[in-house]
Amino acid sequence: MRKGSFKRKNVVPDPKYNDVLVSRFVNNIMMEGKKSRAYEIFYKTIDLVSEKTGENGLDVWRKALENVTPSVEVQRRRVGGATLQIPVEIYPFRRTSLGIKWLIQFARQRGEKTMVEKLAKEIIDASQEEGKAIKKKQDVHKMAASSKAYASLQIR
């Protein structure tokens, strides 16, 4: 039996854009507790994105994040000795968390020299519905669509 619900911490908005979503993104970029370095990477990335696209960098980033966020995922459930993958709609907080994690994860895997360049390229690709983060979202949606027959066996 579970012990009870948890209290989600309130994230403080970032100093430049006064946005909580930016803070969540920076917290995911951060490694070894170096938050000021993570903010520096993010702000330089936004500047680079706006320079390359000619649009507002923050708007391009928001569009990329919106394009990457999945709406359904599959969860495993054991039914009669077989493990089935059941498609489940994702809660909004987890939806954005997955989008943020995928953007950063696939940016780190890119071949550019600095993290600023890697993240900028991944954001630009995702805003144009290209790149590995978009492919990951499409793969998750395909898995959910292929196991649509088990949707009646809801987990939650």
Characterize the structure shown.
The protein is mainly α and 156 residues long. It has one domain (20-150): Ribosomal Protein S7, CATH 1.10.455. The protein has six helices and two strands. It has helices at 20-29, 35-53, 57-68, 92-108, 115-127, 132-146, and strands at residues 72-79, 82-89. It has a two-stranded antiparallel sheet. Strand 1 and strand 2 (82-89) form a beta hairpin. Helix 1 (20-29) packs across helix 4. The longest helix has 19 residues, at 35-53. The radius of gyration is 18 Å and the shape is globular. The relative contact order is 0.14. The model has no long low-confidence stretch (mean pLDDT 90).
Output the keywords.
156 residues; mainly alpha; Ribosomal Protein S7; two-stranded antiparallel ribbon; 6 helices
Number of domains: 1
Shape: globular
- Give me the side-by-side strand order of the main sheet: 1-2
CATH architecture: Orthogonal Bundle
Q: Helix/strand/pairing class, anyone?
A: mainly alpha
Provide the CATH superfamily. Answer: Ribosomal protein S7/S5
Brief digest:
The chain has helices at residues 20-29, 35-53, 57-68, 92-108, 115-127, 132-146; strands spanning 72-79, 82-89. It has one domain: Ribosomal protein S7/S5 (Ribosomal Protein S7, Orthogonal Bundle). A hairpin with a 2-residue loop joins strand 1 (72-79) and strand 2.
